[in-house]
Task: structure prediction
Amino acid sequence: MLSKPLIDRYNRNLNYLRISITDRCNLKCIYCMPRKLIPMLPHKDILRYEEILRIVKIGVRLGISKVRVTGGEPLIRKGVFGFLEQLSIIDGLSDISLTTNGVLLKDSINRIKSSGVNRINISVDTLNKEKFYKITGYDYFDQIWEGIEQAEKMNFNPIKLNVVPLKGINDDELIEIARLSFTYPFHIRFIEYMPIGANQINADRHLLAPEIKKRIEPLGRLIPVVKSAHDGPAERFKFEGALGEIGFIQPISRHFCHACNRLRLSASGQLRPCLLSEYQEDLKSLLRKGCLDNELATAFFEAVRKKPSEHNLSTDHPPKVLSQMCVIGG
Ligand code: SAM
Ligand code: SF4
Result:
């Protein structure tokens, strides 16, 4: 019974699990974390590492082959490197990646590399120190940039830089950010803002991919890149002569639901088949009632069965997802 692939009603093979290991963060990005104090999950409600590992092992027996560790900020959780090492020895996982804001990257890059992480995404929305402070509430820009350069030296390949463009916040820098792809082998990923969680950014600040493309056009023609096995939903391009790439993740202007292969495990132990739907299977309660592996597998199948064909977010639809991104895992 534990070897059925996770194929949903729309014939999508859900082989990718994104895991939020904490809802805590050392930044407060304006599009993600409210500036005012919000209640964090009590520690007892956050899945323990051994619980996450048990879930991943069951997921792998059902067909999960890739995981991404995210948050909140994953590098602030105590014991994260030991957890990554445990993940990397799970037979059947072919790809382990990490998304981080980079604040702690400089001092942890060796441990990340030796723990078996193949790929990292680093979120950085500006190249300007003052603006970084405005966006995140903290003065860590130089530290993050050192971490990014350190990661490059350690030959992580590719290093993706995640950027959420917002009008009047960082849209005057899109060209400078895209220009990085000429000097570094980075994959710059422009991600459309999604209205998720309690504090949402006004619609007049939203910036969609077609407009972002126009803004960076002066740098040259965007040449499409052929997709590869580990590609996510990004539409990929390269400027002629560039070392790196430019990608667009367009959940709003051109949603990729038909090709979505993701499940998400939230910090609070909920298995969610769609980032933009509140439906979830409560794995934590099952685990803490002392369930059998088969019961967890059944919950996986139920989540897969209920994965919606697509989300209903658009520029005209008001947002419905009130769970915080840092709990679900971005
Ligand atoms: N703290 C880590 C970081 O920032 O990379 C990992 C967690 S963060 C939630 C993961 C990704 O989600 C980041 O790249 C961030 O830019 C993105 N993100 C957060 N809130 C978002 C939103 N409302 N719309 C689009 N992307 C968002
Ligand atoms: Fe923290 Fe990442 Fe959210 Fe920024 S995007 S507040 S770094 S979890």
